[in-house]
């Protein structure tokens, strides 16, 4: 189906944005681990510089251990509708996915980029996204907290990452991009077939 750039220019709403967002299905063990690490180790480092920042853990099936993470500066929402989720993407300042294990490309990372919301993740989170070198990622709590704080503080950096994110989606994961890859592969397949016929004949 391809990913749609639904963001437009998000920089106009920047002054009204605040808080940190982690979107995930919390029946999945890597997401439970990430949420726990985020609340226990990363968020306190962010709060040293941003004591009022709030974290939203948004997604279905929060395990008891995830629900227990809720507190004055942490909300655990459970399932939300697509409309409600779009509201979080529009209001929050930074998305994060501090994944420490789990394979494959991460839809939550791509979805954040679709909305033009800068994402801070880990080496695991950027698997399969070699062309997204602009995406802040690190594998220590301190480095992740630093990357989040830069996006909370620096409007110019935020705008750069937001625009790079939506441009990446347009170039690599939009419907037009997927059609382009399909056409290229079909063309390559026809070329191989013609070569085989010529050799066989």
Short characterization:
With 201 residues, the chain is of the alpha/beta class. It has helices spanning 29-47, 64-67, 82-91, 107-114, 141-153, 155-172, 175-200; strands spanning 20-23, 55-58, 74-78, 94-97, 119-121.
**How many domains?**
1
Largest sheet: 5 strands, parallel
Q: Report helical residue fraction.
A: 40-55%
Hey, roughly how much beta strand do the residues contain? 5-15%
By DSSP (H or I, 4+ residues per run), the number of helices equals: 7
Can you tell me the CATH superfamily?
A: Glycogen Phosphorylase B
Question: Which secondary-structure class do the elements indicate?
Answer: alpha/beta
Low-confidence stretches: 195-201
First-last Cα distance: 39 Å
Spatially, the strands of the biggest sheet line up as 3-2-1-4-5
Gyration radius, rounded: 19 Å
CATH architecture: 3-Layer(aba) Sandwich
* CATH T-level topology: Rossmann fold
CATH class descriptor: Alpha Beta
Topology, element by element:
Blueprint: E1 20-23, H1 29-47, E2 55-58, H2 64-67, E3 74-78, H3 82-91, E4 94-97, H4 107-114, E5 119-121, H5 141-153, H6 155-172, H7 175-200
Parallel strand pairs: 1-2, 1-4, 2-3, 4-5
Helix pairs in contact: 1-5, 4-6
Could you characterize what this model shows?
- With 201 residues, the protein is α/β, with parallel strands linked by helices.
- The protein has a single domain (10-174), classed as 3-Layer(aba) Sandwich (Rossmann fold).
- The chain is built from 7 helices and 5 strands.
- It has a 5-stranded parallel β-sheet with strand order 3-2-1-4-5, with helices on both faces.
- Strand 4 (94-97), helix 4 (107-114) and strand 5 form a beta-alpha-beta unit.
- Helix 1 (29-47) crosses helix 5 and helix 4 crosses helix 6 (155-172).
- The longest helix has 26 residues, at 175-200.
- The chain is globular.
- The N and C termini lie far apart (39 Å).
